[in-house]
Amino acid sequence: MAILLDKDTTIVAQGVTGWAGTHHVASMMEYGSRVVGGVRPGKGGRSHLNLPIFDTVAQAREATKANASIVFVPPATAAAAMIEAIEAETPLVVAVTERVPVLDMIRVKDALKGSRTRLVGANSQGVLAPGVCKLGVMATGSERPGGVGVVSRSASLTSEVVAQVTAAGLGQSTTVGVGGDAVHGMSMRDCVELFLADPDTDGLVLIGEIGGHEEQEVADYLTEVKPNKPVVALVVGSHAPRERRMGHAGALAFGAQDDATAKIKALERAGVRVAPSAHLVGRTIAEALAQAR
């Protein structure tokens, strides 16, 4: 069992006719994901990648009964695309677009209030349920079905950790990239709640970085619920200078409260085992699961 995705997930791709949409949707379909249509205003009635194209998400949902959307729309209009999917009551929306303007994302967050939609991203590599569904742009090949849930703010580190978890003889229930922008949809805590409720997830790996307070929010939640599943974390950016953005738009520490050291201390106080280095995450979660058993 995975979170967010299952064998019945059907997908429409917004912005499918552009280069990025074409490339990554073809990869998703090759993986076995059930992509059933695309959305491109002004091109309704045509086809692309042998998929029917619609002018709006509402039209695509009505015709295909899709229950998920992925957004490949450029930053200037990505928020409008997300809001369109929310207003069409799409249950799951993944936005891979990076550096959507912050004020635009605040409008998106407002549209999410009271809606039926879960939004992953923006600036997300997506969601992957190994062997079930790929809804995103992540590399595949090293993933395997298993019991480790991965929640991450970093796409490249997710690929590294997935490879390590597989090499340790484990596997992944689902990997979720919450997004590297400062304002995004589902938080790390939201994902942790879903993983802790998932009977087929035996343990969790959190991949955090400087900036924001999501890791501290997870720590507060874990302190409150005291889960019986082991949680391992990697927090990168210990040597990053303050007030300097480190790759992601949201990877920006202004003070001691949002640097790596503060996040690591908060997670350790909550009982999380923090991997001492990026190359030891797989070994650390394997040891934690062995001790839990």
Automatic annotation (TrEMBL):
UniProt GO molecular function: nucleotide binding; succinate-CoA ligase (ADP-forming) activity; succinate-CoA ligase (GDP-forming) activity
Coiled-coil regions listed: none
EC number: 6.2.1.5
UniProt record, GO biological process: tricarboxylic acid cycle
Pfam entry (one): CoA_binding
Keywords assigned by UniProt, alphabetized: Ligase, Nucleotide-binding, Tricarboxylic acid cycle
InterPro entries: Cit_synth/succinyl-CoA_lig_AS, CoA-bd, CoA_lig_alpha, NAD(P)-bd_dom_sf, SUCC_ACL_C, Succinyl-CoA_synth-like
Keyword hit for Ion transport: no
Active site as annotated: 248
Stretches assigned to the CoA-binding domain: 4-100
Gene3D superfamilies: NAD(P)-binding Rossmann-like Domain, Succinyl-CoA synthetase domains
A single Gene Ontology CC term: succinate-CoA ligase complex (ADP-forming)
Tagged with keyword Ligase: yes
Origin superkingdom: Bacteria
PROSITE patterns tied to this protein: SUCCINYL_COA_LIG_2
Similarity comment text for this entry: Belongs to the succinate/malate CoA ligase alpha subunit family.
NCBIfam families documented for this protein: PRK05678.1
Official protein name in the record: Succinate--CoA ligase subunit alpha
Species of provenance: Chenggangzhangella methanolivorans
